[in-house]
Amino acid sequence: MSAPNKADGGVERAEDRLNIQGTKAPIFYVALAEKILTDQETLHIHALGSCIEAAVGVADRLERNGLAKITKIKTDKGGRNDATAQIVISITKTAEFGKLYEAQKKDRETRAGEHEEKK
Description:
Layout: E1 3-4, E2 11-12, E3 17-19, H1 26-37, E4 42-48, H2 52-64, E5 68-76, E6 86-93, H3 97-118
């Protein structure tokens, strides 16, 4: 069941949400966001505390690469007893997403093949 998303006033589904945690490198989340956006039009990137910087970096990288546009940023300090900072960054994939994503995918495959040949 979908729950209302306070970040954009709409409905957020689990598959529209990317939770950034400190356990993985930001590049992992960039690749994961790209993968999610192949099937979704929008994505909501969530982070708490020290992971906020990584969330901003992921959204910024997607926008700089032309794959997505940041549509909304919501920050909060948590509840009464919780002073943990939090952020939700809503992004929407661009019209050029499919073309750019496929070009990046081919480039990665080419580089991987070149790396294998050097071994």
